[in-house]
Amino acid sequence: MSRILVVDANARGRGKRFSTLDVIGVGPRLVVSLLKSYGHYVDLSPYEIFISNPSIARDFEVLAISYMVSDVGAVRRAIDIWRKINKDGIVMLGGPGTLDTNLLMRLDFDIAFRGESEVTLSNILSRYKDLRNVLYSVKEHGILPGLAVKMSSGKLADGGIGPWASREVVSKVIPDVDTVTRYPFYWASRVYVEVVRGCSNFYRPTLVAGTTCLNCNMCRTSPLNLRIKCPNNIPPGCGYCSVPVIHGPARSRDMDSIVKEVKALIKIGVTRIVLSAPDFLDYGRDLLIEGFLTDPCNPKPNIDIIDKLLGNLTSITEIADGDAVISIENVKPCLVTEEVAKILGNYLRGTVVYIGVESCSDKLLTHIGRPSTCSDALRAIELLSRYGLRPYAYLMHGLPFECEDDIKATLSCIDRFKSLGVEKVVLYRFTPLPYTAFSSYSRPEPAVLNPIKAELYRRVIEFNRGQKNNLLNKIIDVVVACRYNRDPHYLISYPVKHGPVVLIRASPNFIGTIAVVRIVGVRSDRLVYGELIYVKKRLKLRQYI
């Protein structure tokens, strides 16, 4: 049995988290449960806690770091600290960051998991009681799929991407709940609960550097199982996204497993739970077909099972009483029908839902492999808003093959977003990621350096700030998280049903409560001021010290 410390370094960049401070993801908690299931002693530490108290490394033999490609700076610092304290310890890496081979080679690690971990972990932990034996076995038996090992020579033994876990395996292990309390203000954070693994969009981009789409249409019209492979080896999905390659087609998690996890999270004081999926509306669609779910738009959503899942969750006492809230993350526009919007509105009224618009140029959307048109997205936004949800729209600039006319088409939709009920626009800059169709493209210049993109950026900022003004004098429930480090007279709080960070001038004694506040001012497109009206509930917390 090994003593393993899992460090969550996701979104820590070079060592500091600048946004989404209230997010607790699934990945590190899942790894904790998987390792525990094989008899190891495992604990979890957010990156900031580990860095501020490195002496905890002395209690462990293995450091397991979960990170993204952008977090290499933070990972390097964590490894340096570990090596100084625990020279003979093993460094194990996992998460999306391990997919970039060039960056991986620059890190001082021993074992890395590439892709999904369930099957790969089972393959090695059923063979080796001690993880150190994995390093010795590579020389004699070769590398296993899903593993990368840094050899003493400095070379990389690379087994490639790990196998996709089956629907049964995805449902088998519930991500660890107790270690959620290791995170600061976990009670106010959005805790993600996985409901769907993988993505159903196995369309391919029609334009990719270095290869040519044959226009065979196999990825759009052939039998579902045949869409896994492309005759010209173009990776599936949107050209900027690696989910279909790394995590495969959409598989739904067992409903009982989801409900059990949500109940356990609420029991420790979690108030904001996000049902995580590349597309929530894929939930249960895989049960309607034979083989792999590789069509993003057909069959239509499994209304019955979505209704049952949301019904079971919203009947949990704390959720029914408003002391905890569930929300969903992403939906594909082509799956949003009036019936879907009505059911979501029935259970999730007042919560946020994210819609990937990306661009309002249908030509560009086809080129990059998107399954929905701009009109699909606008219709989905209107339907969801009509039934009481609060749509957030994703846009992206700098995409390959994007031209000025494409940006102009998107600009022309900004005003329509407002009339259709979009509450916020999230604008991203295209970033090439490993194992995507667009991995070989360069990252584009920032929007502010290009006149037409700068106009898009400015309009998005104006849109978001204007929508914040609509919040003035509204009364909402918030969860009070912590002091505001830029002004200790204020406390940071988060809307229970999601929204901008709310600063309230109040005593620290209110931390750990659900409070009712009135929005009285707008500080920026991300921050508003609130006036405390009264405390609705003091939470029973299990904060780990």
How would you sum up this structure, described in words?
- The chain is of the alpha/beta class and 545 residues long.
- The chain folds into three domains: 3-163, Cobalamin-binding domain (Rossmann fold), CATH 3.40.50; 169-469, pyruvate-formate lyase- activating enzyme, CATH 3.80.30.20; 475-538, Nucleic acid-binding proteins (OB fold (Dihydrolipoamide Acetyltransferase, E2P), Beta Barrel).
- 30% of the residues lie in helices and 22% in strands.
- It has 17 helices and 24 strands.
- A seven-stranded mixed β-sheet has the order 3-1-4-5-6-7-8, with helices on both faces. A five-stranded mixed beta barrel has the order 20-21-22-24-23. Strands 2-9-14-15 form a four-stranded parallel β-sheet, covered by helices on one side.
- A hairpin with a 6-residue loop joins strand 20 and strand 21 (490-495).
- Helix 11 packs parallel to helix 13 and helix 16 runs parallel beside helix 17 (451-469).
- The longest helix is centred in the C-terminal third of the chain and has 19 residues, at 451-469.
- 47% of the residues are buried.
- The model has no long low-confidence stretch (mean pLDDT 94).
